Amino acid sequence: MLGRTGSKAAAEESATLEAHLHRVALGDREAFDAVYEQLAGPVLGVALRVVRDPAQAEEVAQEVLVEIWRTASRFDPTRGSARAWALTMAHARAVDRVRSVDAAVRRESRAAALMAEMPFDQVAEAVEASLDRQRVRRCLEGLTELQRQSVTLAYYGGYTYSQVARLLDTPLGTVKTRLRDGLARLRDCLGVTG
Amino acid sequence: MDPEVHSLTGAYVCDALEPAERDAFEHHLARCATCAAEVAELRETTALLAAATAQAPPARLKTAVDARIAVTRQIPPVVAPVPARIAARPRRRWFTAAGWGLATGLAAVVAVLGVRVQDQQHQIDQSRQRDAGISTLLSAPDARTDSVAVRTGGTGMVLVSRSRDEAAITINGLSQPAPGRTYQLWMIGPSGIRSGGLLPTGTEASNSVLAHGLGDAQTIGLTVEPAGGSAQPTTTPVMLLPMPA
């Protein structure tokens, strides 16, 4: 019951976001404020999770939010939700940032990997525990150990799957498969529809 | 459908592929409706992973974003491409709509620079050579583009052709370096970091250089160095621009 209500609310929120984004493409600053309201939190959150350094994460978030304004006309609702469009961009930017030369050494260390693996750590959670957060936590717990580690290291840790394979001392092909079936299981658990 | 490539959907939506593998996958994705559908679903899934990390943004973020969008022109929508040409030249699909936008941007920069250069003959010759080089690059069948924001403001764009072993790097809206300092480009790859030369400074809001002999370089870095440049970077890069394979 809760799940149904949640996804219905989410669907309505999503439709609103898409409508706002369309108006942003027309240069509407008020519509951008509404988009910002909905997306700044997740954009900053995912940047922080991947990049770890708050100052750099904020820079990434700033770039992404400006990019949402700049490229709003390129959003294509037939290819996915506005949220997925924006957060895909945010994650990619954050990953670009961590795959930089100065971070290379630090990120090879196992300690950093283990930190990244903790999906819900002690980072100040100023945002109240949301429905999304609870559902994701529950669904991650439903994965096998290897699926959960692979997804967490790759997505939240910002590692390539070759690096994940090395960190987990697991064959490349296995990690590749676990990423795919792990995400597919999350998709089903979270009730994502295409 | 190659099952090997297809199985990369999970790694792809996690941004966990090496650049070359990602490009190969995207090439496949353009022709595989099943993969595209799966990627779309998995992207909605990773979006929820991202949403679960939401943090209350500080007020200064909104202030900074508002200040920047006030001076940021929005890009126009993509107008339907000419289908006949795409059908006849499937390799063009590598060159995405965004790529075309960038290419147009680069062409505009070339035009602007072409007009602005005056004075000494050698400058004109150099500039002409570079502009001709960029135009040739634009028409290379394997020309690919990418762009990234410069940490200290501005945007870096690269247009690369591996077959020509050349790249045009354009930096827009870069702030002037402090006195006695200069911007230096770096070619970063598995075999190490090589200087890509000093960025010409001037009054133009954008700077363009043409680089030959890319070798195994995968990323273009930009650092602030003492005037005259350094043998190896001495400061944290203000930009790391991945070069499409």
From TrEMBL, chain A:
<dbReference type="Pfam" id="PF04542">
    <property type="entry name" value="Sigma70_r2"/>
</dbReference>
<dbReference type="Pfam" id="PF08281">
    <property type="entry name" value="Sigma70_r4_2"/>
</dbReference>
<dbReference type="InterPro" id="IPR007627">
    <property type="entry name" value="RNA_pol_sigma70_r2"/>
</dbReference>
<dbReference type="InterPro" id="IPR013324">
    <property type="entry name" value="RNA_pol_sigma_r3/r4-like"/>
</dbReference>
<feature type="domain" description="RNA polymerase sigma-70 region 2">
    <location>
        <begin position="36"/>
        <end position="100"/>
    </location>
</feature>
<dbReference type="InterPro" id="IPR013249">
    <property type="entry name" value="RNA_pol_sigma70_r4_t2"/>
</dbReference>
<feature type="domain" description="RNA polymerase sigma factor 70 region 4 type 2">
    <location>
        <begin position="133"/>
        <end position="186"/>
    </location>
</feature>
<dbReference type="InterPro" id="IPR014284">
    <property type="entry name" value="RNA_pol_sigma-70_dom"/>
</dbReference>
<dbReference type="InterPro" id="IPR013325">
    <property type="entry name" value="RNA_pol_sigma_r2"/>
</dbReference>
<dbReference type="InterPro" id="IPR036388">
    <property type="entry name" value="WH-like_DNA-bd_sf"/>
</dbReference>
<comment type="similarity">
    <text>Belongs to the sigma-70 factor family. ECF subfamily.</text>
</comment>
<keyword id="KW-0805">Transcription regulation</keyword>
<keyword id="KW-0804">Transcription</keyword>
<keyword id="KW-0731">Sigma factor</keyword>
<dbReference type="InterPro" id="IPR039425">
    <property type="entry name" value="RNA_pol_sigma-70-like"/>
</dbReference>
<protein>
    <submittedName>
        <fullName>ECF RNA polymerase sigma factor SigK</fullName>
    </submittedName>
</protein>
From TrEMBL, chain B:
<feature type="transmembrane region" description="Helical">
    <location>
        <begin position="94"/>
        <end position="115"/>
    </location>
</feature>
<keyword id="KW-0472">Membrane</keyword>
<dbReference type="InterPro" id="IPR041916">
    <property type="entry name" value="Anti_sigma_zinc_sf"/>
</dbReference>
<keyword id="KW-1003">Cell membrane</keyword>
<dbReference type="Pfam" id="PF10099">
    <property type="entry name" value="RskA_C"/>
</dbReference>
<keyword id="KW-0804">Transcription</keyword>
<dbReference type="InterPro" id="IPR018764">
    <property type="entry name" value="RskA_C"/>
</dbReference>
<protein>
    <recommendedName>
        <fullName>Regulator of SigK</fullName>
    </recommendedName>
</protein>
<keyword id="KW-0812">Transmembrane</keyword>
<keyword id="KW-1133">Transmembrane helix</keyword>
<keyword id="KW-0805">Transcription regulation</keyword>
<feature type="domain" description="Anti-sigma K factor RskA C-terminal">
    <location>
        <begin position="102"/>
        <end position="238"/>
    </location>
</feature>
<dbReference type="InterPro" id="IPR051474">
    <property type="entry name" value="Anti-sigma-K/W_factor"/>
</dbReference>
